From TrEMBL:
Stored SMART domains: PKS_KR
Organism for this UniProt entry: Sphingopyxis witflariensis
Protein name: Short-chain dehydrogenase
InterPro entries in the record: KR_dom, NAD(P)-bd_dom_sf, SDR_fam
CDD domains: SDR_c
Length: 255
């Protein structure tokens, strides 16, 4: 695993115990990065780290609640102490509440904002000053961060905030060559949507998106995360990249 786009580099992935985060952690490792896998689910994170180590890669796991400032700081400190540097941060942890505006209470709103928006804010505050020159942070937003989602109003509001955060933080360390971008996935087959069986870790040649439902896999999003985290996307900063297989491009969708 010493050749690849991230050979000799260090990548940090939050929400790395499931779904998109797992796919990204495995791909970073395949591309030669040492990977720090952070998640509320420490056992799940360690399972993925062990899988990477079993293949000859470098990886460690850390329990991190992204809604905790102290946990974000500890995650960054661990990455530095284990591997000495951080080149890429994929701030991907998130939580979903399927509650429309009329039914949602303030506690649901607070939880959605604490994990999805404030978690990203604190993650960027912790990691950006620690990134190596030329490094990059990538935050997982959502298509519901660029258009409303009536069935998940608080989640959608928080993800809109993530895009504002990415835009407004993107200049802060630009003088050091650091970039911050967002990915906005459409529906992806992960636990957050109730899909627990993960398909083999291969990216299909073509997407099959029957109408609105979507059949994107975590690997589709992971590829974009790696691109945005690498110098290959050096001209992209402060942007939200919609990865929805055409989900938002046309309404109504194909039947
Ligand atoms: P997932 O449920 O498979 O993974 C989410 C991971 O985040 C889990 O491992 C969970 O333990 C972790 N997590 C939750 N709260 C946390 C916290 N407070 N601190 C640390 N870790 C925490 O779902 P996924 O689809 O892989 O989600 C990844 C990201 O993608 C999320 O930000 C989600 O909002 C976003 N997203 C997903 C979809 C989709 O359709 N799956 C669409 C758009 C955006």
């Amino acid at each position: 695993m010493d050749m690849g786009m991230f050979a000799g580099k260090v990548a940090l992935v939050t929400g790395g115990a499931s779904g998109i985060g797992v796919a990204a952690a495995l791909r970073f490792a395949e591309e030669g990065a040492a990977v720090v896998i952070a998640d509320l689910n420490e056992v799940g994170a360690e399972t993925i780290a062990a899988e990477i180590r079993a293949k000859g890669g470098r990886a460690c796991a850390v329990r991190c609640d992204v809604a905790s400032e102290a946990d974000n700081a500890a995650m960054v400190a661990l990455a530095k102490s284990e591997y000495g540097r951080i080149d890429a941060a994929f701030l991907n942890a998130g939580a979903y509440a399927q509650t429309g505006f009329a039914e949602a209470d303030a506690a649901t709103f607070d939880t959605m904002v604490a994990i999805n928006l404030k978690g990203a804010w604190m993650g960027l505050q912790a990691v950006l000053p620690a990134l190596e020159p030329g490094g990059a942070a990538v935050v997982t937003a959502s298509t519901s961060g660029v258009t409303g989602l009536a069935v998940a109003a608080a989640y959608s509001a928080a993800k809109h905030g993530v895009i504002g955060l990415v835009r407004s933080s993107s200049q802060a360390f630009a003088a050091r060559g650091l970039r911050v971008n967002a990915i906005c996935p459409g529906p992806v087959a992960t636990a957050i949507l109730g899909v627990t069986e993960q398909p083999p870790l291969q990216v299909p040649d073509a997407l099959e998106v029957p109408g609105y439902a979507g059949t994107m896999q975590p690997q589709h999003i992971a590829e974009i995360a790696l691109f945005l985290a690498s110098p290959r996307s050096g001209a992209i900063n402060g942007q939200e990249i919609i990865a929805d297989a055409g989900f938002l491009a046309s309404y109504p969708p194909m039947p």
